[in-house]
Amino acid sequence: MKNELLPESQLPVDEWTSVEPKGLYVMKGSLLPSTTQVLKEFYATVDWFQRFGKQYPATAHHNGHHCMALDHASVHAAVKEGIEIALSQCDHTALRYMQNNMDDVSVATMLHKGAVRTKRQRGDGTKLVKEGWGLGRHPDTWAPDGQGLVLMICVANTKEHHREFMFTSPPRGLKWSVYTPDATVLVFTHDAYDTWEHESIRSKWQDGECISLTVRIKSIDSYYGWAVPDALTSALPPQKGTDLSSVKYARKMQHARIQAISNVPN
């Protein structure tokens, strides 16, 4: 059988192999209770905006919020605490930079709604009225090998069925799920960033809301997209008409990396 890398595994996702990505760090229950409470109170007051794009379900109305870390005291304090927690597990240049350059740290926040369920008229249990909101599978914006990093801070009122954050590598048929109860801090970099995509699962079981703060370096890799540093520009191949910050380009670069490590020719 010819050894070739498929654009996506032909197996259904539920049959993909569960493998933990290298470069993923999950620290559950690590934020102070006072920090999560202050964040919940702050996000109860913000104006959420509409998310658009194929990865956002039509039902996900007004669940996005963007700011700089220094824009709000509560967000700044939580990001500072999150960085310190992350550094205890992952000593990465990007985290050190964030710690020392807080004015260059952006925070893209998303509200993940739980499912709506009602008590069954007969028997025990509940029945589903509406699934919760999710965020479709996508890579982060492109970054040079090993330099990309995302810090995620999660606050939630979920009790039993928490928000599911899934990493996938479609060409290899690999997956890995992480559940994010209240006070979770999560970091992904290296392979988890370079060759894996991620998504927030739209669940029929999630029993409450989860607010995720995606923390990045604004001048390099924020919700505005990767800005190629001058020092790297000369090393890049010509990209006429290419948006280096696009999901399409990030996915293209991911597949090239996967082909390289799989010893499969382009």
Structure commentary:
Helix 1 runs antiparallel to helix 2 and helix 2 packs antiparallel against helix 3. It is globular, with a radius of gyration of 19 Å. The protein has 266 residues and is an alpha+beta fold. The protein contains seven helices and 14 strands. The model is unreliable at 1-5 and 222-242 (pLDDT under 50). The chain has a six-stranded antiparallel beta sheet with strand order 2-11-8-13-4-3. The protein has one domain: Alpha-ketoglutarate-dependent dioxygenase AlkB-like (Jelly Rolls, Sandwich). The two termini are 18 Å apart. Strand 9 (164-169) and strand 10 (174-179) form a beta hairpin. 23% of the residues lie in helices and 27% in strands.
- Given the C-alpha coordinates, what overall shape results? globular
Which fold does the CATH topology refer to? Jelly Rolls
For CATH, the homologous superfamily is named as: Alpha-ketoglutarate-dependent dioxygenase AlkB-like
Total strand segments: 14
Return the CATH class.
Answer: Mainly Beta
Structural class: alpha+beta
Average of per-residue pLDDT values: 84
Order of helices and strands: EEHEHHEEEEEEEEHEEHEHH
CA-atom Rg in angstroms: 19 Å
- What's the main sheet like? 6 strands, antiparallel
CATH architecture assignment: Sandwich
Strand portion: 25-35%
pLDDT under 50 segments (min length 5)?
1-5, 222-242
Strand neighbour order, sheet with most strands? 2-11-8-13-4-3
In total, how many domains does the architecture comprise?
1
Question: In brief, what are we looking at here?
Answer:
The protein is built from seven helices and 14 strands. It is α+β, with helices and mostly antiparallel strands and 266 residues long.
